[in-house]
Amino acid sequence: MLILGTTVIGARDIGRATRFWTEALGLTALPPVGDNDFTNLTLPDGRPLLAIQQSEHDAEPEPRLHLDLHARDSEDQAAEIERLVGLGARRVPWDRYPEDSDFVVLEDTEGNRFCVIDNSRAPEQCRLEMP
């Protein structure tokens, strides 16, 4: 049997990446472990959600795997994008947005790309229950 553990993000500057993702998602960083300073970022109940590890490589400009962060609606999406940019994220010039797109592509402080989704406009099978 397998279960999905965490999603691991590579970073050249683990401290900067850890600060960004803990602030972005309200997570808590555990002390780094191992030779690559593997750092678990946990939910309030202590369960690991993300991890940051040392990487000697730059982020891929078009990664095949990325995070989707859901905002409640377009107003919440716009506010979250501004908050994330304030934390150090950057907007990605993306020329492949579909018409009436429900997502915006950003990159974190290390260049790892992720999307901020307007959950209210996401396809029904992709919508999340929002608190």
UniProtKB/TrEMBL annotation:
Q: Name one Pfam family in it.
A: Glyoxalase_6
Limits of the VOC domain: 3-119
Provide the protein name: VOC domain-containing protein
